[in-house]
User: Fold this.
Amino acid sequence: MQDHAPLLERAFARVPRDADYQLEPSAGEVPTFIRGSYYVNGPAGLKRGDLRYRHWLDPDGMVAALHFGDGGVRFVCRFVRGSKFTAEEEAGQALYRTFGTGFPGDQLKRGIGLESPVNVSVWAWNDTLLAFGEQGLPWELDPVTLETRGEYTFNRRLNAISPLSAHPNFDYTSDEMFNFGISFSARHPSVNLYRFGGGDLIFRKRLPLEYPCSVHDFGLSPSYAVFYLSPHLLDVEALMRDGATLMEALSWQPERGSTMLLASRETGEAVASFPIGSSYCLHLANCFEDNGHLNVDVIELEQPVYDQYDIPELFTDVRHAQPKRYIVDPEKGEVKDTAVLDYRNMCDFPAIDPRRAGRETRDFWVLGISATEKPGRKFFDQVVHANWHSGEIEIFQAPAHHYFGGEPIFLGDPEHEDRGCVICQRFDAESETMDFLLFDAFEVTKGPIAVLPLREPIHLGFHASFHPAG
Ligand SMILES: [Fe+2]
Assistant:
């Protein structure tokens, strides 16, 4: 089998260290309009004591920040000190079963779920910085130093076993947060839809599901919460009964079909549910309404991708993906039309200009894998800018041994609606160095406009966000 990601194992070989220092560009300049804090979370380090993790979702979360200010760029990174991290540090060994790694005597949280490694995403909500894992409560961090302040309970309205995803959506006009979590009960599976505001829980609605499916993300338009439900079923009893890992307890059952579920954003009540084929969606890009139609932009995959996260043999058999727009009549509960963009490589971490969330999307950015469908390991080696209006796809292709990490989020120029940068990480596996790269968001093909080298590499991140200054 060919290796399309030579030396990729080096990206996962070391456990990064907490750090705090100034960054100086090695090339280019940081645009002066960038003021505020960029954050990225992701699984860091493959080892805990003698245990070597096998799956990309296993390691503990580490958050990195770039604070852009008048004095330059300050880099900070720290492990999130969640319950799992703290207990295992004290014990000097792994204690908990993880997404893809089990071992004799491993523990579950209260015997029913995984203790969160808090390793997926990080968001500033008002002035509160929250790090999230796949399920479980977020952990609050100091927005500057990234020190862990404690588990965030939403004013004690949620508890340690409340299901909650790593993908909140925000209404920046009302400062409300929407989020969801899946209850994987075999008899009564449901999606819990939450609306938070004013530091409190406004509602929690339980929407019944046909089957206990794993759902990672959801969308929010001005009127609807939008769920792309794929038949990736979790047998939670296998986790408790048979000592299975979460990965082993998941099964892909495409014959059951996928469904789009719409709920009222105002009340949380279900308003429509209808079939949408048998594909899989890990991430939505944006949802907006136009002439009575709901537009749902997603990255659609042929099948789930978590079985492609074996470290360091990532994405060995990964299949095509495609950016797709569902144009839905929400009143009738049916798909009126679809549109696709001409990019078929596996791609992930879609990002839009956050100022356009809930409004018509023209542009978005993703990381792509050039060797999609060729057998052999591979990794993200393309930064992609796509335009829904023109259909144009613009690609920055990394040279050999260079790999990208971290959602390529958009940093908008406050003075110009159509200007901004995207930022992501680059790991050079040959020299074992890492940089943060800034691209002109609308000219990614030209390559980075600024390169910010780190003193030593950290992990390749998952989701990122930006909290503007002031
Ligand atoms: Fe995600």
Q: What stands out?
A: The chain has one domain: 8-468. The CA atoms of residues 231 and 256 lie 6 Å apart.
